[in-house]
Amino acid sequence: MKLASLKHGRDGKLVVVSRDLTRAIEATQVAPTLQAALDDWPRAAPRLAEVAERLEAGLLPSFRFREHDCASPLPRAYQWADGSAYVNHVALVRKARGVEMPPSFWSDPLIYQGGSDGFAGPRDPIPYLDEKFGLDLEAEVAVVTDDVPLGLGAEAARARIALVMLANDVTLRGLTASELAKGFGFFQSKPASAFSPVAVTPDELGAAWDGARLSLPLLSFVDEAPLGRPNAGVDMTFDFGRLIAHAARTRALCAGSIIGSGTVSNRAADGGPGRPVAEGGVGYSCLAEQRVVESLGGGAARTRFLQPGDRIRIEMRDAAGHSIFGAIEQEVVASRAGQ
Amino acid sequence: MKLASLKHGRDGKLVVVSRDLTRAIEATQVAPTLQAALDDWPRAAPRLAEVAERLEAGLLPSFRFREHDCASPLPRAYQWADGSAYVNHVALVRKARGVEMPPSFWSDPLIYQGGSDGFAGPRDPIPYLDEKFGLDLEAEVAVVTDDVPLGLGAEAARARIALVMLANDVTLRGLTASELAKGFGFFQSKPASAFSPVAVTPDELGAAWDGARLSLPLLSFVDEAPLGRPNAGVDMTFDFGRLIAHAARTRALCAGSIIGSGTVSNRAADGGPGRPVAEGGVGYSCLAEQRVVESLGGGAARTRFLQPGDRIRIEMRDAAGHSIFGAIEQEVVASRAGQ
């Protein structure tokens, strides 16, 4: 089934969405919000699935679903733990900074605790605060978990994945280096993330979902120009089972925890960095990586970070070309706050 | 007024508590949970204050309040952003590790994004997972904010402080160094924190509260032996206004965000590290700091980290010796999970 939260109060209003993203039904008779449904998932999930089935069969009155009416599926959450599962991406960025990457990064997942108290909606603007902040997108896959007990293993963790969605983990590149140097993780460099209009249960993903990894191209665009289409199932060093197990090593995770994959990134066929889309490669899921590749190729980075008026789009299509999660479409808008 | 959450479901049941912590009244007619009250604070706060007034006057039927029935005031939260405002503590710990502290740490606040999806209750056990993890307490002061707009300044941020409470930011010292080295912040090294049974509005603190700083000794005990009694108003390099402004520099903060002070730490009169309580000093708010002082004095650290069966206690008393927030009292209990 596919679920969304229409903008309404702080936590949205839960709706069940048709597979083709055209129709929806309020699910408030099951749970008022997605978090409320997740808090009681073993009871709520089958009831929501029943609504979804009747919606597909046209047995219930429905209304037209509009992605731009959506908040993020969880407009705020109790946890947003974002991994860096495509170690290729981390290695590249470090290489460009001339910093050696510890070999342990290939065996020990990197995860940072992200701010989860207020996500942007999938069609909300991205505030542009300061040229120096170096505004960037990061296209990712994310999962929402049911309750995860302390110390659960990676294999068992797969069964705790309730929903899958896409994320734009907005990043201020001008602030990441100093925050990394402090060692305390990202804070100011990570303003509000946004998620796809729709979150789907893993069974909607068919053969593209192996239980812990989603093998489809993740499409990113800046001003309608394709930035990247790397396959999210390729070069993912740590799958979602591993990421959840890492997060739950010393504490339980509450239902509704969001675990992110980190920026999706594929190597080129020769094992080196992927090439830009314009040169026939699968491109990148953030501007920083494209800039890194430009600078590694000799010369300066040519790609600029986001500016007011820029529009980004992130989506994923199934084998038949249909949008699975709806699209994250955000415009960068100048803001006076925070300067 | 004083508020608490009795254990009940995932988010507790909101009660108003008498000033002397002996009686309570359910506040569910105002809001079912503390988060719900904070979500509508300008409307809920005066109504809760009215209940508190009637409770003090004996005008409403009340029941006996027991601290051990409490969850943390917010049993889970949308944000737990923990500062390191007593830079003295950071400088000491770095000195012991032989690592230079950047001078910017005295002017640019350190804050890490903590896990907030499930806090321990103030009387809940602390799971002991592995000897190598080096289990430690960290006694802190924390505030809960109302909504904070993006870019709010430090002075204006003071008025967004809705509640004050105490925290035990449980820390696994054996995991902090490797997580600091990764740069992505603390994750596995910070299992569930616990907060005092009661959260209070700033007006309850009288002259001890200057709007952004609480000038009273923070008392910590391990197995009933005093570990520390540093004054939380002394050597706090960044007050809560500064910490909130830092957190809100690039994004708004949702009502119910918890901002922590970091481990409270005072220097000795000569400007050097504080002395242990046993030697007439004000002691420490975590075992790591006592160990650092032992090792700086030549020789090895003698103080051991927490073991199963140990009990910690954290509280704060007003000028008349009365407990303000109730006590965090946690026993360390061996757990098989997570190994």
TrEMBL record, chains A, B:
Domain Fumarylacetoacetase-like C-terminal: 80-332
Superkingdom of the organism of origin: Bacteria
UniProt-recorded Gene Ontology molecular function terms: catalytic activity
Pfam family, one: FAA_hydrolase
SUPFAM superfamilies documented for this protein: FAH
Matching InterPro entries: FAA_hydro_N, Fumarylacetoacetase-like_C, Fumarylacetoacetase_C_sf
Domain Fumarylacetoacetase N-terminal: 1-76
PANTHER family: BLL6422 PROTEIN, FUMARYLACETOACETATE HYDROLASE
Protein's name according to its UniProt entry: 2-keto-4-pentenoate hydratase
Organism in which the protein naturally occurs: Methylosinus sporium
